[in-house]
Amino acid sequence: MQILNHGISTELMDEVEKLTKDHYKRVREQRFLEFASKALKDAQGVKAAVNLDWESTFFVRHLPESNIAEIPDLDDEYRRAMKRFAGELEALAERLLELLCENLGLDRGYLARAFRGPSTGAPTFGTKVSSYPPCPRPDLVSGLRAHTDAGGIILLFQDDRVGGLQLLKDGEWVDVPPLRHSIVVNLGDQLEVITNGRYKSVMHRVVAQPDGNRMSIASFYNPGSDAIIFPALALVKADGAALGSYPRFVFEDYMKLYVRHKFEAKEPRFEAFKSMETDSSNRIAIA
To answer: Global pTM?
Structure first.
């Protein structure tokens, strides 16, 4: 879904957009053009560059500890604006978690507590800043291959002039049209597990475009790395579902599996952890 009444000032959003696009032109564009030239040359003669994404990215970590001061090539103005923007997005993610609790009939603060890792008492939160430059062969290369997001709530501030984002609905790819000053809200695999499937993570992709440079600032509000993820018992009982419909695991362990199988269906990832649970139970029973 896209939301407009999110409480983030349009002035701040405009500032972040301008600084992001300026940073790409100043620092990243030439690097990307060199990469793109080689990538397209290597891809000639094949049907598609299946393991290639037409994007230029960098990642900023906000929680549990920020690394924005350590990222090279960011000027102070950009760092300050990104830090303010991240603070607004963090607050928005927390408000959305509360709304989900209310809608699901869960106790106030349940999802926020489920996201906290025991060691830090905090979630993980970071931002992926991407540019999708014009692609001369969109028939050959994806902007970003189809996937679900691994984590919790994803808040996307996307370019309002250049499209390309699509989600899979009822077996068909549907465009998510750019809407100025909106925030696109997506839910990840962890919320699907915690809500016992009441909310589903959505397969999405970015289609490379022949014209325009699409900006994407995606912020991921995820569980702490050592948070233990499992379906809320209240929802399991309410749904009349047997325990075990979704697995129980540590978020960091899920991420280790996810990075190897990101561009594949989520169901085998869930099944892998369910199998681990079964094996562990069998070993305990034998002992």
So the answer is: 0.91
